[in-house]
């Protein structure tokens, strides 16, 4: 046999000739279908999906899973990095707000730690603790941003999970541990409202504190001085004594954790409502939260028999009428403590929440800051009726997984809930002015 006969014929990559094309068109339809099926079998299932369908699937994943998916291949990276993906994902599915916990060590700054809990993923992630270039006096968060006040009496902020940090022009009045909120003004422009906070002069608390309220415009880097907090809040006017809830993007409610005094600042008219008292029977201390279009009060309450319980009430923001909607199971409340013997143990309980998620945690170190969460939902299967709103509400309680170790001992713990904008994590929204 000649050597040329042993050489297999090569496959031609040239376009089909007219006759070959005609022959292909004349193939038996059954055979043509079998050939197409064989070609499809060699492809992966994902490669047969359209980009729109892949984007839809990714939009239902937890945020961290989307980041991991973006590292699989260039095509997926380009898809999740596109600014349009974040907007489209928000339209398909509303992501629930995260629970953030920040621990400060007053002696060794390197032991400061920050964590974020994604309820959609059910896991914690460790975060950068603070702006490394600034000495931070206090730390807070709201509306998709971290906030910090510094020793220079200035204010700085950064998008959650991914910087950069920006420092503002000086506040009219220096303060420590203020309440902070994020809202949108006319035209859709974002603003930051800073309320109260202890003021220091020469290292001492100013007893003539003006109870200042200031609103910051990031576009112009300017502060607007507003009417101050009502004088009823003068005793304990920092975030250690007050809680706040932003309702409907217009009313910023301020509530005394122990005094139970409540007032609202109208962000449109720049005016305060009258101060009232919101104290369900037996309440020892409580926290005010926003849940959709209603207020939720969460607090420790004495019971006729046995130890105190931790209860939730729905509150009508106009009349201040309230109705109990749930009580934390005693076994969950007990898991936040080491023993039942200490009468003062409940003083370390804190509570934050947003949009139907209420987190209760112990700010002591003994169990690495354990926490429980209650999910409030509407539905006909609710166990209790909210008589103030006419809606049925159900409460589902569970433990939050422990913080990822090792966890240091902190002198101060700051916690808050906030939505995490997808574009601040995936790209396209980090370097834009807020």
From TrEMBL:
Among Pfam families, the record links this protein to: F-box (PF00646)
For this protein, the record's InterPro entries field holds: F-box-like_dom_sf (IPR036047), F-box_dom (IPR001810), Kelch-typ_b-propeller (IPR015915)
GO terms of molecular function: ubiquitin-protein transferase activity
Q: Where is the F-box domain?
A: 49-89
Query: What does UniProt give as the signal peptide span?
Result: none
Set out the biological process GO terms recorded for this chain's protein.
Answer: SCF-dependent proteasomal ubiquitin-dependent protein catabolic process
Q: Mind telling me which SMART domains this protein's record contains?
A: FBOX
Q: What is the designated name of this protein? A: (wild Malaysian banana) hypothetical protein
What lineage is this protein's organism placed in?
Answer: Eukaryota, Viridiplantae, Streptophyta, Embryophyta, Tracheophyta
